[in-house]
């Protein structure tokens, strides 16, 4: 766990704002924060106990987030707070500090995030920053973050903004100006100092503030993805402000760019102004120090010259009482030294002026050492004496040895020069003193770096020790901090030829104030320009949006059908062009609606009226315009039933319509060849001819009446004056012509249908057999008189009643209401009067779908009697033939036992045996069919379909192998019911007949597949072969007795024509059916469907022996 700093180990306190402007800034930020809480009060925290608990929990975790995972970032160039004696602090990162209020923003709401942020900021402010601005800063960021992730706008930008990490990244960008603003408001100092401090902030400080935001945003993004229920999504998205207002959209796009531009220009202006002010300050300090530095060598050289000129043997040889007078004379004559003292060769004082009581105790250590060296023969020495703590200037000691001709020291002369009052240093001191007006200071340093002169007594004599590491033997300008924490600019100027230096310092606020004075005019102009640009954009966009609102209102009125008011926009610009377009649209739409109104009336007339005169006359009235004097329609005869011969049907409208009737036939024939005929001036274009003394129109337009490629006639309009036909007019008349064509087609269809109905009615009335017609809902449409005359057939002859209520026979009603699946369904129906009718129900098709049914009843009672007599006769004959046939077969097979037969005799015997077997098979089939037709009771037993199919396949496999036919059984995919009952013997016989037929009519190498399926609650035995197929003409009669196809391929196989009839009888006896689907050359599919009948378990009976006779 990374812990570099424990905030709770320090004393909790808040620093009060330093000055009035700080208090004002604090109250402004507090007001903005209160406004934020008020604005987002619609997202209250306390709507539920859960939210209160979550808010309190997050607030309670705030101290924990401050004591773990905190660390310092490396400091580089950070600025201390100006005017305070404290050093710049290293950036401290509390990595988890933003997690509570970021989580509150998504889980609780905006106001909840603000409260948690306020608590987090309070802890940071009390224990870390000690600033009252910190709670407001963190709470404001929390409010903004909560509003960002809880907004419900629907555009792509706001969808991304609802992502926690994206919101954190964008908030970090917003935080940068907020951080700079708070840095400006929270520190003491003048405006320039505070502005410079805010803009010169170290980016490490900013990074330390936003790094916890990134960490919290990343953690919140994981919660957003992994636990979506904890982070609510908006239930309903709303349009964003940019979507609801064009002005807002433009300002939303433009304003950020303008603000960025203004900020960049402001920063650039401040940097340029700061650089200029710094350069000016460098030049000023440099000039000042150069003036002072140039004076120092002259001062020292003059002192050396003066002291050497005074240190002569004459001075040593003077009597003691004359030494002081000589020293006084020298001081007054030169005005350089303020103290002169003469020492003898032993180092004793001989005289001093002006301090006559000068003693050895008044010497400094350096002066004592220098006197000793001078006695030893050193000619000249210079030493510095720093000023006292209460003085501004120090002394320069010049020590000169007085030598005789042999070079032996006879004495030493000490001269002290005060830098503050020396006339040779006044130019330099005056230059340095000029810095004090702006709070600057000047210093003169000796070779040891000690201050020899300072312009202010309050400056410590050791203050120059701070610059030792930053200077060398070259002039240098740099920035540093005073012991009081004030930023200051320092210029260090070495003295040429001497190891001395001149230093000038100036508070940074002077340069900052100068840069502010340079930048303010440009910033003011920039601000004014920005404000003017904003106002101009606002007002210009306002005029555009106001115009667009007017056009929107016009569009709304047009959409509501109010086409009477014109568009209010005028002008020649794009908006004016748009207004003109709206006006043209209104006029065009008004004209179009008038046309549509006419077309609607015409369409209603065409749809509601079948009489051609009533339907076409409104069309002709609509075609009449201002100049039109005649509108006529020339139609074919078929649109009317009462027109005899080859006459055309003509209809006219207009004041002189009948006067142009002689042109009808010409226009009718002309329009067969073209769709539109326009004659702008009939006197110039001779497309039509008129008889003498007959009128003709000045202009004419004709339109062909075609409907579904059928020509029904022509519609033509005559005009009083020559006319230029516009495209819109031709299009409108073409639409009218289309309506006229539809009316003609409807009238023609109605006439044809009426004629057909009358013919059908005559046919049905004359038909002696009962006929009934039903619709697709099995409701009665019509029936013929023969149906009403059949006793017991019709219960209620009311049109529209269901079939169950119309017919009295339940069996016939079941046939009528059952599905017929695009084929004819037949059934024999016995009526209450005892007659038996053959009912045939056929579908009525229309547009590839069934639209009704037709039932034809045929009385077959007489045929039933004949069939019964025939069946009795056949059964008797068949029964009587069985014994003779058995004898014939026996004796025929015994002929080979009597004696040897030749080949011809064997052939004859084989043919006789084959004929006897065919006759026996026919007799057996007739007897089986007779038993089925006699209505014997079924012998129901448990049916095992799979076992039954396998037995049939095993029985017929040798026959299939002879033709190399693949005979296979495909078990059902779904499980069949276990309790199924049927007459197993009959089902087996029917299945044998189907499979045997399939093998018989399948060529060598083919295949026969038997399948079991459940179809509509029926058990289906499906036999599929790849045989020769069945012709469509043979399908309807395929299951009739003794019916065989006339195709050559069918007659190649021997048969009686009773096998499929027996299958059909077996299926009907079980209440089922047998159907066939076949294609020539591709094979057939026979399906035997038996209804499922559940029965208590009985002893299984499988199959019955096939009768081979």
Features:
5-stranded antiparallel β-sheet, Beta-Lactamase, alpha+beta, 1109 residues, disordered C terminus, 48% helix, Arp2/3 complex 21 kDa subunit ARPC3
Chain-wise SSE layout:
Layout: H1 20-39, H2 49-60, H3 62-67, E1 70-72, E2 92-94, H4 99-107, H5 110-129, H6 133-150, H7 156-161, H8 164-186, H9 191-199, H10 203-226, H11 241-244, H12 246-310, H13 313-317, H14 320-334, E3 339-344, E4 349-353, H15 365-375, E5 380-385, E6 395-403, E7 409-418, H16 426-433, E8 441-445, E9 451-454, E10 476-481, E11 487-494, E12 501-507, H17 508-559, H18 574-608, H19 612-623, E13 628-635, E14 649-653, H20 664-670, E15 676-679, E16 699-707, E17 710-719, H21 727-766, E18 771-775, E19 780-783, H22 785-789, H23 803-806, H24 810-817, E20 825-830, E21 836-846, E22 849-859, H25 861-898, H26 903-933, E23 941-942, H27 945-962, E24 966-970, E25 981-982, H28 984-1000, E26 1007-1014, E27 1018-1025, H29 1048-1051, H30 1059-1069, E28 1073-1079, E29 1083-1091
Parallel strand pairs: 24-26
Antiparallel strand pairs: 1-2, 3-4, 3-7, 5-6, 6-7, 8-9, 8-12, 10-11, 11-12, 13-14, 13-17, 15-16, 16-17, 18-19, 18-22, 20-21, 21-22, 23-25, 26-27, 27-29, 28-29
């Amino acid at each position: 766990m990374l812990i570099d700093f424990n905030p709770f180990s320090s004393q909790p306190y808040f620093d009060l704002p330093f000055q009035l402007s700080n208090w004002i800034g604090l109250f402004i930020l507090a007001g903005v924060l209160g406004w934020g809480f008020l604005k987002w009060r619609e997202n209250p925290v306390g709507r539920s106990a859960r939210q209160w608990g979550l808010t309190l929990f997050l607030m309670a975790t705030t101290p924990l987030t401050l004591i773990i995972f905190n660390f310092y970032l490396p400091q580089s160039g950070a600025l201390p707070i100006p005017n305070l004696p404290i050093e710049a602090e290293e950036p401290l990162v509390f990595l988890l500090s933003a997690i509570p209020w970021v989580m509150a923003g998504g889980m609780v709401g905006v106001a909840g995030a603000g409260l948690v942020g306020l608590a987090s900021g309070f802890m940071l402010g009390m224990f870390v920053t000690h600033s009252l601005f910190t709670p407001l800063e963190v709470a404001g960021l929390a409010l903004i973050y909560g509003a960002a992730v809880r907004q419900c706008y629907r555009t792509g930008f706001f969808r991304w903004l609802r992502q926690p990490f994206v919101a954190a990244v964008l908030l970090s960008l917003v935080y940068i100006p907020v951080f700079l603003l708070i840095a400006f408001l929270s520190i003491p100092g003048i405006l320039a100092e505070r502005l410079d401090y805010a803009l010169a902030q170290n980016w490490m400080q900013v990074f330390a503030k936003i790094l916890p935001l990134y960490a919290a945003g990343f953690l919140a993004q994981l919660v957003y993805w992994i636990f979506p229920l904890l982070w609510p999504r908006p239930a309903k998205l709303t349009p964003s402000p940019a979507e609801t207002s064009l002005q807002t959209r433009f300002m939303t796009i433009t304003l950020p760019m303008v603000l960025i531009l203004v900020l960049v220009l402001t920063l650039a202006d401040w940097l340029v102004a700061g650089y200029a002010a710094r350069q000016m300050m460098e030049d000023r300090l440099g000039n000042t120090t150069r003036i002072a530095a140039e004076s120092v060598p002259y001062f020292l050289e003059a002192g050396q010259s003066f002291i050497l000129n005074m240190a002569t043997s004459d001075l040593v040889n003077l009597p003691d009482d004359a030494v002081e007078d000589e020293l006084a004379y020298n001081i007054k004559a030169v005005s350089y030294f303020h103290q002169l003292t003469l020492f003898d060769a032993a180092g004793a004082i001989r005289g001093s002026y002006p301090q006559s009581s000068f003693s050895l105790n008044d010497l400094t250590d350096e002066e004592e050492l220098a006197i000793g060296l001078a006695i030893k023969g050193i000619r000249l020495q210079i030493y510095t004496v720093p000023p006292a703590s209460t003085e501004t200037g120090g002394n320069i000691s010049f020590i000169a040895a007085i030598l005789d001709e042999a070079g032996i020291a006879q004495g030493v002369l000490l001269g002290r020069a005060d830098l503050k009052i020396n006339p040779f240093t006044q130019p330099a001191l005056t230059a340095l003193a000029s810095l004090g007006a702006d709070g600057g200071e000047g210093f003169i340093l000796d070779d040891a770096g000690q201050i020899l002169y300072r312009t202010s007594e309050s400056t410590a004599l050791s203050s120059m020790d701070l610059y030792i590491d930053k200077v060398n033997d070259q002039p240098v300008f740099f920035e540093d901090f005073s012991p009081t924490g004030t930023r200051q600019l320092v210029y260090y100027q070495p003295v040429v030829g001497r190891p001395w230096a001149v230093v000038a310092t100036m508070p940074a606020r002077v340069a900052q104030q100068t840069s502010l004075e340079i930048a303010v005019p440009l910033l003011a102009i920039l601000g004014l320009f920005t404000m003017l640009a904003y106002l101009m954009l606002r007002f210009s966009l306002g005029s555009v949006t106001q115009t667009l609102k007017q056009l929107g209102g016009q569009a709304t009125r047009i959409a509501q059908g109010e086409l009477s008011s014109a568009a209010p926009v005028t002008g020649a610009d794009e908006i004016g062009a748009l207004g003109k377009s709206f006006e043209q649209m209104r006029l065009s739409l008004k004209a179009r609606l008038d046309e549509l109104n006419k077309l609607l009336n015409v369409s209603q007339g065409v749809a509601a009226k079948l009489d051609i005169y009533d339907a076409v006359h409104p069309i002709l009235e609509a075609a009449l315009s201002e100049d039109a004097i005649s509108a006529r329609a020339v139609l074919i005869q078929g649109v009317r039933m009462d027109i005899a011969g080859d006459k055309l049907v003509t209809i006219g409208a207009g004041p002189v319509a009948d006067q142009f009737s002689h042109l009808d036939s010409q226009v009718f024939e002309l329009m067969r060849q073209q769709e539109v005929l326009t004659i702008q001036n009939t006197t110039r274009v001779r497309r039509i001819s008129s008889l003498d003394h007959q009128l003709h129109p000045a202009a004419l337009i004709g339109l062909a009446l075609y409907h579904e490629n059928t020509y029904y006639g022509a519609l033509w309009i005559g005009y009083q004056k020559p006319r230029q036909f516009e495209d819109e007019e031709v299009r409108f008349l073409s639409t009218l012509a289309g309506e006229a064509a539809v009316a003609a087609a409807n009238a023609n269809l109605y006439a044809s249908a009426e004629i057909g109905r009358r013919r059908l009615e005559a046919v049905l009335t004359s038909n002696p057999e009962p006929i009934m017609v039903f619709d697709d809902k099995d409701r009665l449409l019509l029936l013929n008189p023969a149906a009403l005359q059949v006793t017991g057939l019709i219960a209620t002859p009311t049109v529209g009643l269901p079939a169950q209520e119309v017919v009295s026979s339940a069996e016939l009603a079941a046939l009528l209401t059952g599905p017929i699946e695009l084929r004819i369904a037949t059934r024999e129906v016995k009526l209450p009067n005892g007659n038996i009718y053959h009912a045939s129900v056929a579908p009525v098709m229309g547009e590839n779908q069934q639209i009704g049914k037709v039932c034809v009843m045929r009385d077959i009672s007489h045929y039933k009697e004949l069939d019964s007599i025939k069946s009795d006769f056949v059964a008797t004959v068949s029964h009587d033939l069985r014994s003779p046939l058995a004898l014939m077969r026996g004796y025929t097979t015994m002929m080979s036992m009597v004696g040897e037969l030749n080949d011809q005799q064997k052939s004859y015997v084989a043919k006789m045996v084959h004929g006897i077997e065919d006759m026996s098979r026919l007799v057996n089939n007739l007897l089986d069919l007779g038993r089925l037709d006699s209505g014997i009771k079924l012998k129901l037993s448990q049916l095992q379909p799979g076992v039954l199919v396998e037995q049939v396949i095993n029985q017929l496999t040798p026959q299939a192998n002879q033709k190399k036919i693949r005979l296979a059984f495909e078990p059902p995919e779904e499980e069949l019911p276990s309790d199924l009952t049927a007459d197993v013997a009959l089902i087996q016989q029917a299945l044998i007949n189907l499979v045997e037929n399939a093998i018989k009519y399948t060529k060598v190498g083919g295949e026969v597949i038997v399948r079991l399926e459940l179809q509509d609650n029926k058990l289906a035995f499906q036999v599929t072969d790849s045989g020769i197929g069945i012709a469509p003409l043979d399908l309807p009669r395929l299951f009739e007795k003794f019916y065989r196809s006339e195709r050559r391929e069918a007659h190649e196989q021997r048969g009686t024509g009773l096998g499929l009839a027996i299958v059909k009888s077996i299926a009907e006896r079980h209440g089922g059916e047998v159907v066939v689907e076949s294609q020539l050359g591709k094979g057939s599919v026979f399906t035997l469907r038996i209804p499922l009948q559940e029965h208590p378990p009985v002893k299984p009976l499988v199959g019955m022996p096939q009768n081979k006779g």
